[in-house]
Amino acid sequence: MAPVKAKAPPAAPKAKRMDKPDRAGLDDKVAQLQATIDDSQARIAQLKGLIDAKKDSRRHVGGGGAPARAKLGQLRAEFKSVVVRGPRAALVPRDTRTARGYGARETTAAPV
Length: 112
Hints:
By secondary structure, the protein is mainly α. 51% of the residues lie in helices and 0% in strands. It has two helices and no strands.
């Protein structure tokens, strides 16, 4: 018996080549999308500026509040000096205070 040859499938018809795309229409769509992107990026930059300004205002004291903060610092220092040294320490001359300089009262405890 003679070998049977397999038949090759019929050749596919050649596909019709597609037309070139409309370049002007594509450019219009790209320009619209680019305008949207530019608007969004401008808004992002604006929001970043607002956020940075808010952060900076928290870190730094504005010019209007500087005298009030200076007065507050002065009052705090005065308060701390009274609390640390005691209320009478300011009335006692420096050379009669204790060696530590706190103006602590001398205690006269009975010997045990």
